[in-house]
């Protein structure tokens, strides 16, 4: 019950936010928070629930961003039409990359994903058709509503919010399905999960593909809002790192964890950038580094799990005895 | 024939952990695998479950060759196992742990939950259903392993030292549970160190020593077999012990 109250309060705030805080900076900030929340939630499916820490997720982000801009720049279509193409690209790539790499555990998987992302960035940087280092641009002047090119951040904010709601709904549905249960089991002990009939490789691959599809949508939305994509903004490894840290800070493997992380880190970055100007851009990453250290040292479950633990009464730690009495009771003559 | 292993050999480099072991399992059997530490019984066990690939030899289940079948597919066929060191899903509740097993036979969450609750009821852990699995101690974890495996509705259940680390009282409760499982029509393979368990449960016993099968037969037969006593206690001790019953020497059944 309390959960639903919290949920409605957060949802109401999210809907009212750009009307309450209506300066262009605040609206743009809001749109960015929601956008990164989408990306981090998508990452959460494979990084949080499946425990496969992908550091190369930007490659799927790039699929979406390039597909959206490519639809306009190459075919004169609305960037909107690039979204399905981006999803297909991302899912296909996830299947190709996932089959060999998802067998790798822990850091090895992370490193393989970095390698894939960096390779892709270099390929795109050297491909004239994709604009090479300059990148691709979207429509400068909107031809019609479907170009989704707005001066104000307000329409983007609500568009992103709708997509975030869909992303969270998909994640929620997944966690309550057999697939979600299997993912959590595989994360804890792949060997045991398999012994109980969970097809580990297939389940992880599906999660990876689902995550890739949603990440590509985030990439497409990002490119639409900024009106262009280049190898750095669409395929730079730092975007992956940002997404990962947001999910980990908020709480990886929790539905609303990535949301909390994005709501903290995006404003932090934007505000520090606007205060310190170009010189301060690096400072954000110093902060990110510090956050990585703090998460690793103190709160592997993320901030949200800390809150949830405080909200609940302390769990009884003397369960061993209970188990004994329980088994005794059931076997008493 | 429910489960059959033909000439299983498992080599790690040049070391043969299991050397040409064969076994047949009929419906309703309780087969005990015993032997000193490092005898190869766990390796053999893992070849049956598919956790290890055999170097040579074949495994058959209900007449079909399953040598190259993955563990998750073996589970689907009706082969379930527990782990010597409990592989509890720490991030889940007790009920959710068992639901993972139940999901094998139903894709629906509600149905899986109903079945998992029935299994927890059966093994006497229903009151712990909503407790986090990480709060369980060794006896609870061992029992949870069995509950999870039962939820997959197996034909054969393989228990890998399901009673190691339990005290005498808990061992007796666990024996009762295994008997109850057997009565429900499930065929069992048990790897066990505790002789009391083997003596009171197994219908047939296979003894491993240095990767080879050195004896098989009823529990009484194998424990009075000189080769078995020598394997456990060494040849000199075996001679010295000639006047005692082997069961006493191996720590049973007065446990």
Chain pair forming the biggest interface: A-B, 35 and 48 residues
- State the low-pLDDT regions of chain B, or none: none
Q: Provide the β-strand percentage band of chain A.
A: under 5%
Shape of chain B: globular
Stated plainly, the CATH topology of the largest domain in chain B is called Rossmann fold
Total beta strand runs of chain B: 10
Radius of gyration of chain A, in angstroms, nearest whole number: 21 Å
Return the structural class of chain A: mainly alpha
Helix content of chain A: over 70%
The overall number of domains of chain B is 2
The percent of residues in helical segments of chain B reads 25-40%
Q: Which strand order do you get reading across the main beta sheet of chain A? A: 1-2
Describe this structure in words.
The complex is a heterodimer of chains A (333) and B (255). Helices cover 74% and strands 1% of the residues of chain A. By secondary structure, chain A is mainly alpha-helical. A two-stranded antiparallel sheet of chain A has the order 1-2. By secondary structure, chain B is an alpha/beta fold. Chain B contains eleven helices and ten strands. In chain B, β7, α6 and β8 (187-191) form a beta-alpha-beta unit. In chain B, α3 crosses α4, α3 runs parallel beside α5 and α4 (109-123) packs across α5 (138-151). The longest helix of chain B is centred in the last third of the chain and has 16 residues, at 168-183. The A-B interface holds A 176-178, 181-182, 184-185, 187-189, 191-200, 253, 315-317, 319-320, 322-324, 326-331 and B 49, 51, 70-72, 75-76, 80-81, 83, 87-92, 96, 99-101, 103-104, 107-109, 112, 123-125, 127-128, 131-132, 135-140, 143, 148-149, 151-152, 170, 173, 176-177.
